[in-house]
Amino acid sequence: MDDLIIASRLVHFAALALLFGGSLFRLLIRPQNPNQRQPWPRAIDITVVVVALLSALGWFIGTAASMIGDWSEILEPDVLAAVLVETQFGRLWIGRLTLLATMLALTLLWRRQIRAREGLMLLLSGMLTASLAGVGHGSIGTGSLGPIHPAADMAHLLCAAAWLGGLVCLGLDLRHASNRGDVESIDTVRIMLPRFARLGYVAVATLLMTGCINTMVLVQRPEALIETDYGRILLLKLSLVAIS
User: Fold this and answer.
1) 200: which residues sit within 8 A by CB, 6+ positions away?
2) From the centroid of its chain, how far is CA 103?
3) Helix/strand/coil (H/E/C) assignment for every residue in the chain
4) Whether 48 contacts 54, CB under 8 Å
5) C-alpha distances in angstroms, 168 versus 14, 24, 48, 201, 223?
6) Mean pLDDT per 10-residue segment, the chain (244 residues)
7) Which residues contact 152 (CB under 8 A, 6 or more apart)?
8) pTM
9) How far from chain centre, in Å, is Cα 234?
């Protein structure tokens, strides 16, 4: 059960990062040129949405089985209905699966990558990403920082998705420009790099600030950095930030 949940969460967030960060990149970073072939084909969007939907289902099945304590009853209609309707996780997942189904229909029916489509994809994927705070440590917290912890966790998730998804898009665009090697592609890169650098500064600064809030809420004593899974993951993340 735990292995399915962990794998599903990892794949799910990676897919959401590509959706949210990709839409943000195409709206704010890449210059608008309708006559230039886009390095990010529509097929990638469709694939990523399907992966996000399947990983969300895997996450739900793993969590439901963990609540029930047995795989054998997971497909019983009354048990499944109880998990969906009577738990906070189930009610949240109804909304999330609905958003994912809407995004899949959007990518299948809306073929052209125009700004209206990207704006709607950005909104829906942003809602999906921020809603993960409701099933993670963003729902935990007491004391003076308790009320702002969910908001900080939402901002943390959105900035991480924007940064990671944007990096993938930037890499694809740089490869596309390198393959073409014409003046128009080089000019596009010259415009994108400063824009993405500014986005990166904001995203990383926000990640650090919201990460500090999360740490103050969840790490009550220094020993927790070593003794808990959250503390060890936090040390790993800090090491990666220091290296970068």
Assistant:
1) 163, 166
2) 14
3) CHHHHHHHHHHHHHHHHHHHHHHHHHHHHCCCCCCCCCCCCHHHHHHHHHHHHHHHHHHHHHHHHHHHCCHHHCCCHHHHHHHHHHCHHHHHHHHHHHHHHHHHHHHHHCCCCCHHHHHHHHHHHHHHHHHHHHCCHHHCCCCCCCCCHHHHHHHHHHHHHHHHHHHHHHHHHHHHHHHHCCHHHHHHHHHHHHHHHHHHHHHHHHHHHHHHHHHHHHCCCCCHHHHCHHHHHHHHHHHHHHHC
4) no
5) 11, 12, 13, 17, 36
6) 84 95 91 65 87 92 79 70 82 91 90 82 94 71 64 91 93 86 81 92 89 75 68 70 61
7) 138, 209, 210, 213, 214
8) 0.84
9) 18
Identify whether the C-beta of residue 215 lies closer than 8 Å to the C-beta of residue 238.
Answer: no
**The total number of residues written for the chain in this structure:** 244
Q: Which two tokens stand for residue 64?
A: 């439901």
